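Posting for a labmate who doesn't have an account.
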Amino acid sequence: MSGGYALADGRLAVDSLSMTEMGCDPARHAQDEWLAAFLTLGPALALDGSDLLLTSSSVNMRLVDRRVAEPDLPLAGSLWTVDSLIVFDGVSSVPEGVFATLQLRPDGGFDVATGCNSGSGRFTFADAGLRFSELNLTRMACDGAAGQMETHFLRILQADVVAYEIESRSLTLQAGG
């Protein structure tokens, strides 16, 4: 759902609310309709610590701040598993049976499984991003989906500077455009 809103006199005023029509099952479709109706009826708003309370005469809804409910994992020490590839404007899932991971260590080292080969190297913080160096990989021949995953992963690891963003349990790495 998306739309415009305003806050006036402690109430939420939503207008031009639109929703995707993704063919949800009847129960979820009914839930979406209910939520849209609730939001457009102008519920009262209040903050209770890090919780947002939306209330009407018959509904009390408590929303927990995402950063409290699912805090960002630390960059170093977490094992990051690749679950999607973003190439230009397209996003694709990791091919079935291909497994790729990256773990940055607090000592400045990293371990990687590229989908085919595995190895390690060093990383530093540079230019509001990361710089990977000293990459040493096993040298198995990679073809098919595993080879494609490795090609994408190596483009990231060999870029001059890799931008990164952490949101909850997701790390997004971006190199180039």
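Reply:
Got it, the structure tokens are right above this. The domain at 79-174 is CATH 2.40.128.270 (Lipocalin).
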